[in-house]
Inverse folding.
């Protein structure tokens, strides 16, 4: 982020509003942490930061990547394809991943040190065998809703603070959809880590800036 005067600057403190602010914790699961099937570099480092933040929020929502065995987003489901190549699926271009976050497996569990007791809602996503879901709000066809928008509206949410894994995929698409649903949207940089495939982190930051997603650090809330 650089230059935009509408963005909160590092160092600015944000007063949390206990009834209308929501912490949205994206995919802090074993398979996205070191040793996992789709490990995000330093993915586990977000855990203590998120635990420190979550006690400050009255409303906490988690997402959990939750794939069927043989999911279409897995390279292993496509003959001759390797992980991190792409395929054309009916809803568009899809990056193919190593098998990860298969329903009911240890890799799909939340990181053991993540504090989840105060979470009021867990959104599972990516459970349709034919379609991936990066965003907490919509599957990758950008049409099939998870129901999170309605939940947050009915609960009176106004500002969403996003943390978790991975910055350039599930956090990014969740943040963009949050903006499209007209929530004021903050990504807490030091509580996220990226996969960074061929410049995807820089592209993610550019897209966030374009769509008016605020980027802050946890300091602003502590
Ligand atoms: C994710 C790739 C595949 C994520 C999930 O949580 O960012 N990335 N499935
Ligand atoms: Zn996935």
């Amino acid at each position: 982020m650089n230059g935009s005067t509408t963005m909160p600057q590092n160092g600015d403190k944000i007063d949390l509003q206990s009834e209308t602010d929501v912490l949205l914790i994206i995919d802090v699961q074993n398979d996205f942490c070191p040793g996992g099937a789709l490990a995000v570099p330093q993915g586990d480092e977000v855990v203590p930061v998120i635990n420190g933040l979550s006690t400050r929020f009255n409303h906490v929502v988690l997402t959990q990547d939750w794939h069927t065995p043989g999911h279409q987003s897995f390279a292993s489901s496509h003959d001759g394809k390797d992980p991190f190549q792409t395929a054309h699926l009916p809803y568009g271009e899809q990056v193919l991943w190593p098998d990860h976050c298969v329903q009911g497996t240890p890799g799909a569990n939340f990181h053991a040190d993540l504090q989840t007791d105060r979470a009021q809602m867990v959104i599972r996503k990516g459970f349709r065998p034919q379609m991936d879901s990066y965003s907490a709000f919509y599957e990758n066809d950008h049409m099939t809703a998870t129901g999170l928008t309605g939940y947050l509206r009915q609960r009176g949410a106004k500002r969403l603070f996003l943390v978790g894994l991975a910055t350039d995929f599930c956090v990014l698409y969740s943040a963009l959809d949050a903006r499209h649903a007209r929530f004021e949207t903050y990504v807490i940089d030091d509580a996220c880590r990226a996969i960074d495939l061929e410049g995807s982190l820089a592209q993610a930051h550019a897209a966030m800036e374009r769509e008016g997603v605020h980027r802050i650090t946890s300091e602003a809330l502590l």
